[in-house]
Amino acid sequence: MGAFNLTPSNPLTFILNGIPGLEAAHIWISILFSMFYIISLLGNITILFVVSKEQTLHKPMFLLLCMLALTDIGMSTCVMPKALCIFWFGFKGITLDGCLTQMFFLHVFTATHSAVLVTMAFDRYVAICDPLRYATILTNARIAKLGLVGLIRAVLLILPFPLLLRRLPFCANRIIHHTYCEYMAVVKLSCGDTTVNRIYSLVITLVIIGSDLTLIGLSYGLIIRAVLRLSSKKVHQKALNTCTAHICVMLMSYTPVLFSVLTHRFGQGIAAHVHILLANLYVVVPPMLNPIIYGVKTKELRDKVGKYTCRM
């Protein structure tokens, strides 16, 4: 009975073990992660500041960039501060409530981020396929409503995650081999029946990623069809260039998610530290690169950022 202590007198606590197998490199990994995190914060806060200050940037496309920046800040901030505390100070403990809170907000930001990418694909579709009606179809108010719908969808779909986990009994082994409370990593610690948790996780992953990728694919299918109907190659290039930044951001966002989902279920041969490293890079590298990509590819934003930079 001592090995299955399900009702301890102290609050239930888990141990986040960092990246097993790479303990000797924790300090170097932490330096890299902290640099990525700081660059991510600076880049995304810069976008939010510049767009809020410049009336000429109060347009649907830049409102979407602000939404993307907010989700990027949220995703990286849910993970990086705790991960750095593990690497630098050895603060590995986290209560059940803290674990569930981190998990909930991380997945909400991730799901909202996906919804923003879908809306951005729709924005590019309207801009290329129906440019004369762009201003009437995509107003700032409509974009804000679509963002709110994406947030509500994320909250409703993710809320059962912590609720389903809270009902599970946890045994004496409470070591999570990760830098944050990843849902399936916590589920595996339970000594109860986790069938419902595993099925719900798989269904929600398929619903969110499957539906969002389908809508994005549909938008780009219609964009490609419209572009191929144009006679001028110069117009072809100009139309496709407007989508380049979004395609780069989309690939950076969905590729590691799909890899993580597949390795959790079918990648038993992949080393744990590889999976954990990629999971951490997912929440810090795209948020770092997204502002850079859009800053380079979007002339209006690049010019305004340059104006404020010159003033400093």
Overview of the structural elements:
It is a single chain. Residues 1-9 have low confidence and may be disordered. Helix 2 runs parallel beside helix 5 (140-158). The protein has a three-stranded mixed sheet. It is mostly helical and 312 residues long. It is 75% helix and 3% strand. The longest helix is centred in the middle third of the chain and has 34 residues, at 96-129. The relative contact order is 0.15. It is built from eleven helices and three strands; from the N terminus they run E-H-H-E-H-H-H-H-E-H-H-H-H-H.
Global morphology:
globular
Helical coverage, percent range: over 70%
For the termini, the CA-CA separation is: 65 Å
Oligomer: single chain
- As a whole number of angstroms, the C-alpha radius of gyration is 21 Å
Layout of helices and strands:
Elements: E1 13-16, H1 26-53, H2 60-89, E2 93-95, H3 96-129, H4 134-137, H5 140-158, H6 160-166, E3 175-176, H7 183-187, H8 195-228, H9 233-266, H10 272-297, H11 299-311
Parallel strand pairs: 1-3
Antiparallel strand pairs: 1-2
Features:
312 residues, mainly alpha, 3-stranded mixed β-sheet, 3% strand, globular, disordered N terminus
